[in-house]
């Protein structure tokens, strides 16, 4: 009898533990199911505008629209898109668009889904406009007491991992057009690094989480592996300590775009510590186009594949 009671007590304890475990699991599932997430993406849709380089036909726009549906992002930083008119050909009219105004078809923009519930306010970050470089788009998203600050960029192309200090740039060769272009690109990117760092410094003093995203035209993994100093590497220029300590999922990932033709990412989504705390683990994704790479097909779709992350807000 005593043994039986003992067994009953043991069974009761086990049942209680199981009930507690099931309760915790149910609570977790319920919480996860109702947690609000925001999907943020970046996509350089090459030469999407009135320029002669854009040779797309209606079938190509339908293909791009299909990938946009697959992306299904709430907020998208856009590069090389001329205007909302052109963005709508791919993303449709379910977004509110904010674009820089510099007179050049390769503009930077941000698309915010109208049904996201977030109110967007935007200003151009003209300080990035150094030489022939593009301006940034500074967007603040708010919903009740929630807020997120974004800086969408398309940095100067042509200086993917060279040192950005003046001494190193001065030593770069310039005996042909290709070398002259690379040297000029590095000089302009070095100028852009100053206002980019200033934006990070200013945001770090505020309470709002922030993200930098877009086409940085810079292989951050190379900045890090080459151990560049703060004046040599773009990553080192913007990544400091404390509130200015940054993180990007692209640093340790390899791009699969067009069969991994370029394995090092130059498109990035960069988080400050407050935004990093809201990152949904393992949510970083890259949409890979289906066809095999050819120059013609990459011009029809884009030479960049869209990337995205999710944040729990």
Question: Shape, please?
Answer: globular
The CATH topology name of the largest domain reads Deoxyribonuclease I, Chain A
Gyration radius, rounded: 23 Å
How many helices in DSSP terms? 9
Classification by helices and strands:
alpha+beta
Sheet-strand content, in percent, reads 15-25%
Q: What are the secondary-structure elements, in order, as H or E? A: HEHEHEEEEEHHEHHEHEHE
**Largest sheet strand order:** 3-4-2-1-11-10
Characterization of the model:
The protein has 313 residues and is of the alpha+beta class. The protein has two domains: 1-34; 36-312, Endonuclease/exonuclease/phosphatase (Deoxyribonuclease I, Chain A), CATH 3.60.10. It contains nine helices and eleven strands. The chain has helices at 2-34, 58-71, 84-91, 166-171, 177-204, 220-225, 234-238, 273-276, 295-300; strands spanning 37-48, 75-81, 95-99, 107-113, 119-125, 136-143, 146-154, 210-215, 267-271, 285-286, 307-312. It has a six-stranded mixed beta sheet with strand order 3-4-2-1-11-10, covered by helices on one side. The longest helix has 33 residues, at 2-34. The protein is globular and about 50 Å long. The model is unreliable at 1-12 and 14-34 (pLDDT under 50).
């Amino acid at each position: 009898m005593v043994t039986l009671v003992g067994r009953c007590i043991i069974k009761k304890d086990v049942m209680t533990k199981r009930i507690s475990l099931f309760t915790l699991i149910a609570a977790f599932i319920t919480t996860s199911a109702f947690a609000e997430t925001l999907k943020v993406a970046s996509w350089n849709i090459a030469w999407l505008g009135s320029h002669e380089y854009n040779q797309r036909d209606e079938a190509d726009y339908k293909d791009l629209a299909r990938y946009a549906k697959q992306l299904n992002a709430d907020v998208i930083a856009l590069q090389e898109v001329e205007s909302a008119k052109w963005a709508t050909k791919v993303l449709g009219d379910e977004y509110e668009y904010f674009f820089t105004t510099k007179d050049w078809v390769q503009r930077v923009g941000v698309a915010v889904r109208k049904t996201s519930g977030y109110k967007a306010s935007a200003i151009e970050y003209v300080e990035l406009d150094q030489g022939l470089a593009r301006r940034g788009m500074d967007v603040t998203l708010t919903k009740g007491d929630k807020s997120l600050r974004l800086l969408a960029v398309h940095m100067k192309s042509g200086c993917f991992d060279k040192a950005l200090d003046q001494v190193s740039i001065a030593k770069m060769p310039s005996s042909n057009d290709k070398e002259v272009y690379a040297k000029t690109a590095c000089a302009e990117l070095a100028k852009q690094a100053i206002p980019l760092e200033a934006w990070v410094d200013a945001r770090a003093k505020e309470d709002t989480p922030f993200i930098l995203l877009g086409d940085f035209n810079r292989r951050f993994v190379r900045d890090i592996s080459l151990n560049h100093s703060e004046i040599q590497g773009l990553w080192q220029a913007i990544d400091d300590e404390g509130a200015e300590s940054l993180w990007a999922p692209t640093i340790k990932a390899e791009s699969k775009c067009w069969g991994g033709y370029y394995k090092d990412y130059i498109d990035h989504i960069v988080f400050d510590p407050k935004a990093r705390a809201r990152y949904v683990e393992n949510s970083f994704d890259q949409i890979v186009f289906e066809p095999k790479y050819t120059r013609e097909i990459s011009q029809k779709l884009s030479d960049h594949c869209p990337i995205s992350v999710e944040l729990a807000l």
